[in-house]
Recover the amino acids of this structure.
């Protein structure tokens, strides 16, 4: 047998008052703020790495400043300004990472070119003699 044949309410349990007043059914709205939107990233770890490594033209330091600003604005709830600072931090990090990769790459290329040119030249160069600077400059001319 089911509960409907006895006409008991479904929330009636032993030792409770079965004549409890029920609230009318309705909807409850809970404001969760920006539930569908992800907060902007602050790129703080990437900025720290770019600041500590090479840091050409202080680009890593600028990225670190904007990363901290983005984190501060995010904690204060100003997501629009946090997004702007996050975008600036991202681009400074991209520029800094590009320079951080480009400088060692150029150094390796110049070293390889120098070694190839020295290997293909005849004789030895006297860098300290009277024609030392001229001989050194000949290394970089084709």
């Amino acid at each position: 047998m089911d509960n409907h044949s006895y006409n008991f309410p479904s929330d009636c349990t032993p030792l409770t008052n079965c004549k409890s007043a029920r609230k009318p059914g309705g909807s409850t709205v809970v404001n969760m703020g920006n539930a569908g939107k992800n907060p902007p990233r602050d790129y703080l770890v990437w900025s720290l790495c770019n600041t500590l490594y090479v840091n050409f033209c202080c680009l890593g330091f600028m990225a670190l400043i904007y990363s901290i600003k983005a984190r501060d604005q995010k904690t204060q709830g100003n997501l629009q300004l946090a997004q702007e600072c996050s975008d600036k931090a991202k681009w400074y990090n991209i520029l800094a990472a590009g320079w951080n990769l480009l400088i060692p790459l150029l150094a390796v290329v110049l070293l390889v070119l120098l070694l190839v040119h020295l290997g293909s030249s005849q004789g030895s160069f006297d860098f300290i003699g009277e024609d030392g600077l001229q001989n050194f400059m000949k290394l970089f001319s084709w």
User: Anything to note?
Assistant: The chain has a mean pLDDT of 78. The CA atoms of residues 63 and 93 lie 6 Å apart. The helical segments are 44-52, 59-76, 79-120, 132-138.
